[in-house]
Amino acid sequence: MEILIQRNQLISAGLSVEEADIFYETLQHIISSADVTRAPAEVWREVVARKLLKPQHPHSLHLFLFNTLYSHWDSSVLGPPLYWFPSPIVSSDLVVALLIQITLSDLLGRYESCYTNLGRLMEAHCPRLLGKSYQDPITSFSTFQKFTVDNPEIYWSLVLKELSIWFRQPPRRILDDTDNSKPGGVWFPGAVLNIAECCLLPISHPRKMDSSVAIVWRAEVADHLPVQQLTLKQLREQVMLVANALDATFAKGDVIAIDMQMTPDAVIIYLAIILSGRIVVSIADSFAAKEIATRLRISKAKGIFTQDYILRGGRRFPLYSRVLEASPCIAIVVPAVEESVDVSLRKQDILWKDFLARGGQTTRPHEYSPVYQPVDSITHILFSSGTTGDPKAVPWTQLSPIRAAADSWAHSDVQVGDVMCWPTNLGWVVGPILLYGCFLSGATLALYHGSPLGRGFGKFVQDARVTLLGTVPSLVKTWRNTHCMDGLDWTRIRAFASSGEASNVDDDLWLSSRAYYKPVIECCGGTELAGSYVQGSLLQPQAFGTFSTPTMSTGFVILDDCGNPYPDDQSCEGEVALFPLLPGATDRLLNADHNEVYFKGMPLYKGMHLRRHGDIVKRSVGGYFVVQGRADDTMNLGGIKTSSVEIERACNQADDRVLETAAVGAAPPQGGPELLVVCVVLKDGINADPEKLRIQFSKAIQRSLNPLFKVSLVKILPEFPRTVTNKLLRRVLREQVKQDLSVRSRI
User: Fold this and answer.
1) What distance in Å separates the CA atoms of residue 648 and residue 660, rounded to the nearest whole number?
2) Is the pTM higher than 0.90?
3) Angle of helix 264-275 relative to helix 232-247, nearest 10 degrees?
4) Listed residue (279, 151, 208, 172) closest to 552, CA to CA
5) Are residues 486 and 441 in the same domain?
6) Which terminus has fewer CB within 10 Å in the chain: N or C?
């Protein structure tokens, strides 16, 4: 396979004549040395290894070279084009490195596989577990992943030793799967602990010391100031102070809500609620008053921590006023920036400083005896939209943080010394996953108080020396299109993570290139899973916008239209069905029938009752996965799983000319996050302008559901396609919408 690239093409892609000459000569040497049968992947791999492409090079050059090298790549035969490759290490490499004066950091960068968490674990245990079939962490990764599915007790017994988990009373065993009434089994039976205490204790393995930096942060109004930090000891003392104040204000077992930005104060409050034996209900700070009220009602919260306002992108967004409108329960109001809040409080509400003073009245305000509970005790209530009006109330037990941290440890490779940043909120599942992923692995949590859309956030990533950066694809698209991160140094980042939406290949390429093509680990799971079911891995080659493996100890099949599983090695597309043994996943819902939601109507597979998840997944040649959308009537907007029914209810009330609406999500032709399209049937004899309806619908949705949602297109139809039983055929509407979007993209 011949690869033809000319100097003038490099110049057209953004290089100067002098730069193009040097670049061309090096590139030609790489191409001439490549194996013809695997030339594109081998050439790209060497281009990346030599750091020929640099972050400061124009994106047009990165895009041109990747697309040109893979222009004749047949994905139907070879699988998706690969951009990142793990490297093995052999015993002589260290000696060779010293002889040719390669630095140790370069060595670790080139031969990272045996230095990953999972690589170390495999090297230590797989020769015994897999026998002579074990070769190395890369070659044997898929074999070991399947082993963990078949032998979850062995895998989880090893992982528990790697995380900062301390049991007041250790479990009798890892898994009891003898109770047929619990398809997910009983995990860690008999264990008693306090998971918040595990986050706060210094422990020799991983190496968490009182002097370790637990949190670094910066507010967007302080972009010019040094990054602030909190040690593990300081964090523990603040959490215990708040726990004492909680005892002076609420009863044991009370449900307490948090509706705040993810700041150090919010993290402290979160841990204190759990440390003191209470239950957190987390609410996203973007929600309208109606949505806040719904979550407080369902959870029966006795109090709520909130802020006077949110500062984001240089603008103030009121928050306390939304809480006032939502609920009469006690509110503790934390100032967004200054020492004093910028609002007048109701009589029953409490200023943050006055609340802390209650904790300070104890004899030892910075000490606290944790409340120990069984491992299956509820500690956190999150919400996941369903297909009814109310969101599902999803309880996390103390198992859920262990699952969340284990996924981060194994797939994102969170290690002691890492600094991890992921712009999110405690109201979304990524918030607690990030918190536990850092604190139970010994890493530092990095928080930015403000908008992640601009340069201030990027400068924080640079100044905080972030090594693991989580993203949402729509964020990356904004960074790339606005050029706001140009000139910043992100080369300390050793891996990215992406979740919430489908990724766009061009945007992922731009993101990876900011750190000399470090891997972007795609993650897909759910609130009810306390983690992911499919991810990328640092022990496998990665392709942009794809998942490379089921998560460790997780098994699933892809079902055809008749509900039969496709063979594991077959390229296919269908609804994913999970194996039921998922530690940390829900075994109950607070306001819905768990069995009906996740198990009713699902087939048996090898004696297991499969668990419903709802994603439509495509498996490619080579075993890579792409999530195609939802099988049910929900959609993913900006990383938020949202009910079509909720969208339609708001739109139906927005204009009296509307007879009915159908909301569908569709990915744009070039890939990327789902777009919200509202299909409309008007009343007889009525006409309307689709663009004016689009504006009306957007305002109605933002007012009643979420100010971040917007309608991208309104499609007026004479009638909706339906089954003979009058069920709406959303699948047909989605196909029609995809065709419309494809036509629009060509205009």
Assistant:
1) 8
2) no
3) 60
4) 151
5) yes
6) C
